[in-house]
Each structure stands twice: as structure tokens, then as C-alpha cells.
Design a protein that fits this description.
The protein is mainly α. It has 4 helices and no strands.
Amino acid sequence: MKRKRHTAEEIIKKLREAAGIIAGGKSVEAAARQIGVSAPTYHRWKEQYGGADRNTVKRLKKLEQENSRLKKLVADQALDNALLKELVEGKW
């Protein structure tokens, strides 16, 4: 079976759909099957995206991207500082 990467919006939509199915009296396994994922995937998604709404997920993803960019900048700056220290000490 081909694997599909779901976007955060799709995950939230499927979690809400599964919640409705479970509220209707079906088991978690049956609900997961009905939305097209395995039970462990459903539980992992529920843990990660349980109370999130679409705007929160978008904001979180944007913050994670910015954090990644800033970490790269800090790493580059630390490398430049180390090279300058070696140059000043005469190890070059």
C-alpha cells in the first residue's frame, strides 16, 4: 500500500471525523480504519494534534521554520568566530 504524507490540516480534519465516529459508538480501531489510517497512527496524531486548530498548526509550522533558519545562522556565526580566534592566535 502506498504511503501518503498528510498535511496538518488534513490530519486535524480526519481527527475531527474520527471523533464523530467514536462519539457515535464505534471503537477507535473502527474509526481509524474508516478514516484510512492505522490505530497507532491515529493515537500518534491525537497526541500531536489533539486540541489544535488549523491556525495554531500553521503558526507552529511557521515558528519551527523560523527556528530552523535562526539555528543555521547561529551555527554559521559560531564557525566564523572560531575561525577568527584561530587566525588571531596565529594557528593559521
